[in-house]
Write a structure and sequence with these properties.
single chain; alpha+beta; 3-stranded antiparallel beta sheet; 45% strand; disordered N terminus
Length: 123
């Protein structure tokens, strides 16, 4: 695991889910935890699902698994960022317990920041 310069905060978290269909084994997406827009001390969850595979629950399934593992091994806040128009992703984030924290503007427009805090490490 690569370490950031500000101590022992990992640059890339060791949680990544590769999603594949059962029938073909074709890669349909991924989901993981990484250092995102919120900096090195509070990681961000991200996922990408092939457009032709969206709407089948894959993003929710992968994001649920990743957030469960994160909550199991590390107390703290987990972030996600999403554009307001990305309704499908916003629904996935809400279903996994993320709530709107704040909004920011960048060169592409409004960006929503959602978070979820895990207060204890579960056994």
């Amino acid at each position: 695991m690569d370490r950031a310069s500000d101590g022992d905060v990992p640059r890339a978290w060791p949680v990544l889910v590769r999603a594949a269909t059962n029938s073909t084994g074709r890669l349909i997406g991924n989901c993981g935890i990484f250092v995102g827009r919120t900096g090195t001390t509070e990681p961000e969850i991200g996922y990408m699902i092939r457009r032709d595979c969206q709407g089948n629950g894959y993003a929710f399934e992968a994001a649920s698994a990743v957030t469960s593992e994160f909550g199991r091994v590390r107390p703290g806040r987990l972030w996600a960022s999403v554009r307001p128009a990305n309704l499908g992703s916003r629904r996935v984030l809400e279903k996994i317990g993320m709530t709107l924290d704040h909004c920011e503007e960048d060169h592409k427009g409004t960006l929503l920041f959602l978070s979820r805090t895990f207060s204890t490490v579960s056994a």
